[in-house]
Design a protein that fits this description.
Blueprint (H helix, E strand, L loop, with lengths): L1 H14 L3 H11 L5 H29 L5 H23 L1
């Protein structure tokens, strides 16, 4: 159960305030769209993208077992964060 909670909390916190959530907020704020429909479509999209991520992770585990995948993933997050900061600084 602790692995489940670790994954849940990590993904939940990573999704807070991201572009996907903001897009969902925009769709839900449109009074002409059903909130239940917005929730169902957004939830299904997240399930589908998570399924693809699991498949990619399983393939990466098979093909890249010699590489430190956590290090690669962490570096990817750092690079994305640096690019976002640079984009913000350029915009100011």
């Amino acid at each position: 159960m602790s692995v489940f909670l670790t994954i849940f909390i990590t993904v939940f916190l990573a999704e807070l305030g991201d572009k996907t959530q903001l897009a969902t907020v925009l769709f839900a704020s449109d009074g002409e769209k059903s909130r239940l429909l917005v929730f169902a479509a957004a939830a299904l999209a997240l399930v589908a993208s998570s399924g693809l991520a699991v498949l990619a992770g399983a393939a990466a585990d098979r093909w890249l077992a010699a590489l430190p995948l956590k290090l690669i993933a962490g570096a990817g997050f750092v690079i994305i964060g640096a690019l976002m900061i640079a984009d913000h600084v350029r915009a100011v």
